Amino acid sequence: AGAGYLNIFYDRARVLANHLGVNPLPELNKEASREKICVEHTSVNPNKSAHIGHVRNAVLGDTFARLLRAIGQKVEVQNYIDNTGVQVADTVVGFIYLEKMDLNSIIELDNRLSREGKAFDYYCWDLYAKVGQAYLNDEQLKERRKEVLHAIENGNNEIADIADYIAMRNVECLLKTMEKLDIRYDLLPRESEILHMNFWQKAFEEMKNRNVIRYETEGKRAGCWVMPLDSHEGNEEYDADKILVRSNGTVTYTGKDIAYQMWKLGLLGLDFNYKPFYVYEDGKKVWVTTSSPSSPDDIPSFGKSDVVYNVIDSRQSYTQEVVKRSIAAIFPEKGDEASIHLSYEMVALSLSAAEDLGFTISDEDRNKPFIEMSGRKGLGVKANDLIELLEKKALAEVEKRHPEEKEDEKKKIARIIAIGALRYFLSKYTRNTIVVFDFKEALSFEGETGAFCQYSVVRANSIFKKLHEKELEQSSRFVKEETEKIREILQHENEIWALLIQCFLLPEVISDAIKAKEPAVLAKYCFNLAKAFNLFYHTHRIIAEENQARKSLLIVTADIVRRTLTSALDILGIKVPDKM
What structural domains and CATH numbers belong to the chain? Predict the structure, then answer.
């Protein structure tokens, strides 16, 4: 016998009635397991201002955490602070040897910049680029970097104190920048504590005891401890066996990452001390690790996660593979599934965006499809500059459309549009796609943009501002009670039914986005739903409709769409303004 088929027919009126006034995400909480999930994202080197590439990381990580929370999952968001790394050392070199400053003079500079309305992280941005140029002509300064890095790693000295001040002031600036994008964190784990609280030593002993690392006695790796990766094909860039401890005894980044990953998964047997670092306006605290014993009463339980998602760019794929395999080798019961790398490609600028930001474009660059950035050369887009220019351009559009509005209200609308534009633009591309940022494209009210999705909700909301107070309630009651009339209309209105089905699929779309680890799945859904609603809006005269049954159906359909699209956009971190 051939394959069998099953035809299913929905009672469209009953399906609609069951969805009236219901949360667009009603069934999702049932999907959540008892697992705790950690999402680590942003993780900017705390030596200067964040740039647009860091914003893509933060938006991806924040949106993925929102997707997980939408299904009722317990999520902890961490932002790893590499406060002992070479980038921080470079900025310290700049302050000490180029600017001739000690800690007190750096603090005085910071205070003066604040009084002048200037940002400390911007000053560090310029200084970092200056140091990069100085290294090209000054070998002695490069040697200073090694001394500074060694002092920072050892801690408890004047240079380490300078590094700590610079790093944590840059972190404070970062938190304020990300708060503009509605991106928040629970914990800031610092590399200094991983070094000073013997996390690496504990992980190292665990790996030796379980025979998952090997000490090399000959060849170019003599004196090194390595992680054998027999199935990885070595090449000029990557060795098949990953060095975790160099022959001089220093630990590589990968080694420290393994120790940190073990702690995140609750496998290390050690814990940090914690203290509050930053408080958001609503009272939520961001905690930071510390090596000093502390005992605030309200310390949450950090780490001990069942699954960890690390949002790190694709250039770190090899390192993340080593971390994942190391955890699986040390703790076979955890396997590969506990460590998941959410990789992504870089962000570049279109030629017009580069010109908007004041870059000088060479003839050579004009022949390129996009402009790449380099923090070491000072060529990049600071996140705050990007946000401010987006707000400025959005405000110009709002002033054209609503000149009668009060100035504060126009700025509020422009800010919501700008943030929505940026978050949507960075979410709509799949993670393995290079994003070429363009202001005109991002802010367009037409096409696949955040503004188009926002405008669709504003348009839907405007319908209900024109209806009398009880009309939605009456229409909902009519649809529930007069099912025969609604059934007859829906039987012939496939376009309306298709729009409703599209709304009802939101829970499935969220599940698909999580399984694929692609926020772009939800972004695409928002655009398609907004596009379908606009067709519906232009096809039907909702307010002027004279047939009571048909008008009630149109009203409840518009209400379901606006609530669904608002919920979906909220998961993308996008708010909807009152008007556009």
Answer: 348-442 (no CATH), 444-571 (1.10.730.10)
